[in-house]
Amino acid sequence: MTDISSGLHDRLKKTSAISQLGRGFDVGELNDYSHEICLYLLLKVFRREINNNKNRSKNDLIEMTGHIINEMKLESSIEQIRRLVDGVLYSGDPKRQAPFSVMLYDENLHSHREFKFRYLVPDREASRWEEGGSTVYRLTETAQEIIFITREVLEEFGFDLEQFYTLQLIKNGNFIEAKDSVSNLIARVRNLIKKEKDRTEDILRNPSLIFSAKEESKRMSEGELKEQFKEEKKVFEDMFSWQDRLESFPTKKKKEGKLLFEELERARKLHDKLAELAISNLSLEMEIRADSPELFWKTSNLSYKKDFWQNLILKKGLPDIELLTDLLAPLFSPTQEFIFPLDWAWAEQHLYTYIDDFIEDEEEFLEEEKPLEKEENWNLILELWEGVFSQLKKEGKYPLKNLENLSEEEKEKWLSQDKNLELFMMFIITDIKLEEVEKEYSGLDERILLYNRLIEENDEFRELETKIIKSKLDNSQDLINLDDNFRLSPYILYLEEEK
Q1: Distances (CA, A) of 191 to 154, 195, 281
Q2: Could you tell me which residues are beta bridge partners of residue 121?
Q3: Which of 128, 170, 267, 446 has a CA-to-CA distance to 401 between 20 and 30 Å?
C-alpha cells in the first residue's frame, strides 16, 4: 500500500455522503436544487442543535424546508417538501426507513465494501419519549463532517461553532483531533485579538469611524457582547468538566488528554484577553459618542470647481451663455437670507388670543366631514361564505390561497365587504366551535352569527354543528394579496371534531 492511498476509504466516506445528499428521489422541478436545499436544512438543524433548541421534530424539519424554499424564491407543494425531508432522513421508500448505502473501495482489503450511513438520527435525550414527546433529530457524525469539511464553513458560523466542534471531539474521546481543533481555536482567537487591537488604534486615530454605516450595522450593545462571551466561557467550562474523567482512560489516552487540556488552558486565557479588549473598545466607543458629539456633524463634500465647473459646465456646456452669469453672480454678490424682525415676532404673540377666538367662532359653522361608512350587505356576504363552508363540509379544509384563483368579478365581491376580511382574521386568530343559537343577541361572535345565517339559507350546514374550525399556516405558499387593504398569510381553515 502506497502512502498516497492511505486513508482513501475514510475520504471516500466523506465525499460519498456529500454526493448522495439530496439525490436518489424525485421532487419534480426541485430536482436541480435538492442538494443545496438538503445541505441548507442540515445547517439549520445543526444551528438549533448547538443552541440546544429542541424544535427539531419532523414537522419542524418540514417547516424549515418550506422557509428555505421560500428564501430561495422557488415554488413547491407540501408533498415535495415532505419528500425532501424524507430524502434526508431515509434512503428509498420512507416506510422502510432504510439507511443510505454505497459500495466503497477499501485500500486495506483491496476490495469494495458496503458503507451505511445516515444524516439525521433521533436525539434520545431531547425526544423524551417516556413523556410522550415527539421524535427530535440530531446530526450524525457523518453529517457533522459534511459541515466541518472546510474551514470556510467554520468562518461562516463563527467562534462558537469551533468551540462546539472541540467539545464534541472531547466527549467522543478523540483527544488528538480535539488538540488540533484547539490549535485552530487559538489561531482564531489570536486573529480576533489582533483585529481588536487594530480597531483600538483606528478609533484613536480617526474617532469618526465608529459612526460609519458599516460599523453601525456590526455594532453590538454591551449587554449582547457580555452575553456572547458568557456563553463562550460556559462552553470552555463544559470542556474542562471532562478533565476529571481522564483517570478512566488508558495510559496513552490519558497522556493525550493532558496535552489537550494544557493547550485548552492557553485558549481560555487568550479568550479572556479577547473579551477584555472587545469590551474595552466598546467602552471607548461609548465615551467618544458621549464626549464628542461634533463627530456626528457631516461636512459637505460638494465642490464648485469639481462638481459644477469641471464635471458639468466643461463637459456638457451651457445651452445659453446668459446662464453663466446666473451661476457666477451668487459667488460674488451673495444675497443674505431674510431675517424675521423681532418686533413682528412679538406682535404675533399678541394676536394669538384674537386668532383663537376667531377659530372658535368659525368652528360653530363648520362641520368636520366624516368618511362614508360602507353598508354591510349580508346577502352578498352569505353568498360568498357559502362556498367556503361548502368546501369545509366536503373536504374538511379551505386554503385561503383559493381566493387568488377566483375571477376578477368574484374578487371584487369579496373586496366590496370589509366584513369578509374581519371574519377571516377572526377565524385565523382563534378557534371557534360552530353552534346554533335560538336568537341573535348583542355581543354574539360574528362567526356564530355568520354560521346561523348560513343555516337559514342552507339547512345542510347543520351537519357542521359542534365541529371546531381551526387554522394553520401553510409555509409553502406566499402571502395572499387581493388588494392593498386585503392581505392575508397563507392559512388553511380546517375542521376538527369536538373532543
Answers
A1: 14, 6, 16
A2: 138
A3: 446
The three-class DSSP label of residue 106 is: strand
Q: Are 25 and 87 in contact (CB under 8 A)?
A: yes
Q: pTM, whole model, 2 decimals?
A: 0.39
Contacts of 53 (CB under 8 A, 6+ apart): 47
Distance CA 310, CA 286 (A): 42
The C-alpha atoms of residue 496 and residue 431 are separated, in whole angstroms, by: 10
Tell me how far apart the alpha carbons of residues 450 and 448 are, in angstroms, rounded to a whole number: 5
Read off the C-alpha cell for 379: 346577502
Cβ contacts of 120 within 8 Å, gap of 6 or more = 42, 45, 61, 88, 89, 137, 138, 139, 140, 143
Selection from 400, 475, 478, 473 nearest residue 81 by Cα: 475
The C-alpha atoms of residue 406 and residue 411 are separated, in whole angstroms, by 6
Q: Which phi and psi (to 5°) does residue 286 adopt?
A: -65, -35
Q: Are the beta carbons of 430 and 399 closer than 8 angstroms?
A: no
The grid coordinates listed for 282 are: 466598546
CB atoms within 10 A of CB 45: 23
How far is the C-alpha of 1 from the C-alpha of 108, rounded, in Å? 8
CB atoms within 10 A of CB 250: 8
Q: Is the CB of residue 243 less than 8 Å from the CB of residue 161?
A: no
Does residue 138 sit in helix, strand or coil? strand
Please report, in tens digits, the pLDDT of each residue of the chain (499 residues total): 445 666 788 888 888 888 889 888 889 999 999 999 999 999 899 878 766 788 899 999 999 999 999 999 998 899 999 999 999 999 988 888 889 999 998 888 888 999 999 999 998 777 877 777 788 998 888 887 787 664 444 444 445 566 666 777 777 777 877 777 787 777 777 778 878 888 888 878 777 677 664 455 455 665 666 676 677 777 777 777 777 777 777 788 888 888 888 888 888 888 888 888 888 888 888 877 777 666 555 545 667 777 777 777 777 777 877 777 777 777 776 555 555 555 554 544 444 444 444 444 444 443 444 434 456 888 899 999 999 999 998 999 999 888 888 888 888 888 888 888 888 878 887 788 898 888 777 777 888 899 999 998 888 888 888 889 998 888 777 777 776 556 777 888 999 887 6
Contact present, 417 and 411 (Cβ < 8 Å): no
